Amino acid sequence: MANLTHNRPLSPHLQIYKPIPTMIMSIMHRITGGALYFGTLLVLWWLVAAASGEAYFNWVNWFMGTLIGKIILFGYSWALLHHMLGGLRHFMWDLGYGFEKSFSTKVAKATLVGSICLTVLVWVIGYVVRF
């Protein structure tokens, strides 16, 4: 008997599946979760700077105020909000709701749009309150 599966992978992977919104948002949820570890190190850096003295704290604040620092903070805030919305989506599933294909696709798309809108809103409010 011939081995008909010899040229096929042992298990499916991303090259086999067609990307769909729920799959992409699941992957993004994992990526943003990993990015939040990096962001936690940023918070730790800021707290250590605050405890180390005014000069180091001012330097960290200066760095976070540069274009690179703002891009990093913007990405961190997006990752935080995207991961939060993805967590709410998973919580809804844990409660037994939203398993219909059309609805879960809409929620996946809404997670992306919502995270972008919330991030922009948070930054706009931050700049308005700051000045």
From TrEMBL:
Cofactor(s) this protein requires: heme
Binding positions (heme): 83
Main subcellular location: membrane
The entry's keywords: Heme, Iron, Membrane, Metal-binding, Transmembrane, Transmembrane helix
ATP-binding is among the record's keywords: no
Domain of life where this protein originates: Bacteria
GO biological process: tricarboxylic acid cycle
Summary of subunit composition and partner proteins: Part of an enzyme complex containing four subunits: a flavoprotein, an iron-sulfur protein, plus two membrane-anchoring proteins, SdhC and SdhD. The complex can form homotrimers.
Homology family: Belongs to the cytochrome b560 family.
Protein name, entry field: Succinate dehydrogenase cytochrome b556 subunit
UniProt organism field: Ferirhizobium litorale
